[in-house]
Q: What sequence folds into this?
């Protein structure tokens, strides 16, 4: 039974989990393959099941300068966190203390019209804010000082650093973009362009996918997965080389389907991708179909496979805290999540928390003390879960 069909028939089961002997599936070309079409049902996944052994909470400072209504994205820099909520971009030190506001939405010479994406140059620690409509990157220091702008190719909507250069992705909403990727230097000069491999003619009602491309970094390498491909590619010496395969079968969206299909049918019957990263020896892939949103995790050196309901999250058996939604990585063995102050206080006051028996009772006491110190209107709290 296909994984998506199985989900429809077993929505009462929040998690799919497989573990066993250390065998890894490969494609005919030798790539590690993760088959999303063949999973069996079992029990909930705990943080310790994924190899996590430590947890840390970092409450973000709250004052008039840095109030945020939520978090869309966190990027771990060298000695600081960059936090983005809609068009508001802030930096905080690793202890949660506020550093600076990064730029501002507006029409001034140092203001961006829209922050389509943001990245950190790990060499200089400077922050790059991409305003695709303006075809510009705005460059700021980590303490918010404006430096300059850099021109980028038309339709650029997402970016990542590849060594000292910038890899930009051009939005393919109408299917007609000429180059999907452009590698540019820090002066905006195009070093290399990569033609669009997935052209199509858009329907009158255009479907906009927020995550046509998923970039992530693991170690020193950059990886990407496009929505029309089941392959994850590594960017090596200015060339995309296939690394992993996420086998999605006939539920993989293709340009032909998008061009010929009714837009409601397309959204209901094909996978929409949301998030992708690696930690330890595991791949995390977040996707949705018409029945809900799900998280697949697979090991690259064993046959560990899990599929969880995104809304359910992962059971925090380390300190008994609320279930955690994995969001992004801090480093190769640290995954970052976050929770609102109100949600954390509410959970710690619940019977579920009081009756929990986590692996580290002393950390449960620390969490209770932290929650009681918070005001329900405080900024969100970052959660770092760590492997040995």
A:
């Amino acid at each position: 039974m296909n994984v998506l069909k199985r989900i429809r028939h077993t929505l009462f089961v929040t998690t799919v989990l497989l573990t066993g002997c250390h065998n890894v599936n490969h494609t005919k070309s030798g790539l590690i393959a993760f088959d999303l079409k063949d999973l069996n049902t079992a029990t909930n996944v705990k943080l310790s099941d994924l190899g996590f052994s430590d947890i840390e909470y970092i409450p973000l400072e709250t004052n008039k300068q840095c109030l945020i209504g939520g978090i869309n994205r966190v990027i771990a820099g060298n000695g600081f966190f960059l936090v983005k909520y809609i068009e508001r971009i802030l930096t905080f030190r690793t202890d949660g203390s506020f550093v600076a506001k990064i730029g501002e939405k507006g029409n001034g010479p140092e203001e961006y019209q829209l922050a389509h994406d943001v990245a950190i140059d790990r060499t200089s620690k400077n922050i790059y804010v991409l305003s695709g409509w303006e075809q510009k990157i705005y460059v700021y220091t980590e303490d918010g000082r404006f430096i300059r702008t850099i021109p980028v190719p038309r339709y650029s909507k997402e970016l990542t650093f590849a060594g000292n250069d910038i890899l930009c992705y051009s939005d393919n909403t109408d299917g007609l973009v000429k180059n999907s990727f452009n590698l540019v230097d820090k002066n905006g000069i195009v070093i290399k362009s990569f033609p669009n491999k997935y052209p199509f003619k858009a329907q009158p009602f255009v479907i906009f996918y927020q995550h046509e491309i998923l970039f992530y970094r693991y170690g020193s390498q950059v990886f990407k997965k496009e929505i029309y491909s089941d392959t994850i590619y590594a960017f090596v010496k200015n060339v995309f080389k296939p690394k992993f395969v996420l086998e999605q079968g006939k539920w993989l969206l293709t340009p032909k389907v998008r061009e010929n299909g009714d837009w409601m049918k397309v959204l209901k019957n094909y996978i929409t991708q949301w998030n992708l990263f690696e930690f330890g020896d595991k791949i995390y892939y977040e996707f949705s179909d018409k029945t809900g949103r799900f998280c697949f995790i697979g090991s690259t050196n064993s046959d560990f496979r899990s599929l969880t309901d995104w809304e359910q999250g992962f059971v925090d058996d380390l300190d008994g805290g609320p279930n955690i939604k994995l969001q992004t990585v801090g480093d190769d063995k640290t995954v970052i999540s976050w929770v609102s102050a109100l949600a954390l206080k509410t959970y710690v006051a619940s019977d579920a928390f009081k009756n929990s028996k986590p692996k580290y009772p002393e950390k449960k006491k620390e969490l209770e003390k932290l929650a009681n110190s918070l005001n329900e209107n405080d900024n969100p709290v970052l959660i770092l879960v760590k492997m040995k």
The first strand starts at residue 15 and ends at 18. Confidence is low (pLDDT under 50) at residues 1-16, 18-22. The helical segments are 3-9, 255-260, 263-269, 341-348, 351-354, 361-373.
